């Protein structure tokens, strides 16, 4: 049951930064704005906004499509409370923020690889040189030591590799990490947020 994740399983608050939480807040604000705009003006063309959202938060389009409006509002309220009060993030916030950050980095690394399937030390060094020259993109830098796996991810799915890293970063199983991030499936109950009935 998702609501049973204990705080003892998660590392100290520093698994994600306050900036990551603020970014999550902006994600849910944008998702709410987009959903309300679609209700007010059905049939509009949100492609630019959707592309921008997907670029900043890989995986967010699925969440936007599958999450009921009430849950978007509840997530926005929970993240907002965390930002305003400084309280530690809930497990789903940590997992989601980490997923977005790692997925952004993996996608940048994959683009840099340009279809290359074999990565040796010289390719890794070239990647690091590129990162240094491009301002050292923090999200992509996280994959420098795992570039070969980005080139050939498990099951040919980059998301599987990202979920492995989220799980390792939060001391969870891959199944638990996926469950925290992909809370939108009708087969999985949503974890309660603080202040809501369990």
Give the tally of structural domains.
Answer: 1
Strand content: under 5%
How is the quaternary structure best described? single chain
Percent of residues in helices comes to 55-70%
> What average pLDDT do the residues reach?
84
Q: What is the number of helices? A: 10
The main β sheet shows up as: none
The Rg value, from CA coordinates, equals 18 Å
Instruction: Decide which structural class fits the backbone.
Output: mainly alpha
Description:
The protein is globular and about 50 Å long. The longest helix is centred in the first third of the chain and has 23 residues, at 18-40. The termini are close together. The protein has 198 residues and is an all-alpha fold. Residues 1-14 and 184-198 have low confidence and may be disordered. The protein has 10 helices and no strands. The chain has one domain (2-181). It is 62% helix and 0% strand.
Outline the fold blueprint.
Elements: H1 18-40, H2 47-56, H3 60-66, H4 69-85, H5 91-113, H6 121-133, H7 138-141, H8 147-151, H9 158-170, H10 174-181
Helix pairs in contact: 1-4, 1-5, 5-9, 5-10, 9-10
Summarize the structure.
This protein is mainly α and 198 residues long. The protein has one domain (2-181).
List keywords for this structure.
198 residues; mainly alpha; 10 helices; globular; disordered C terminus
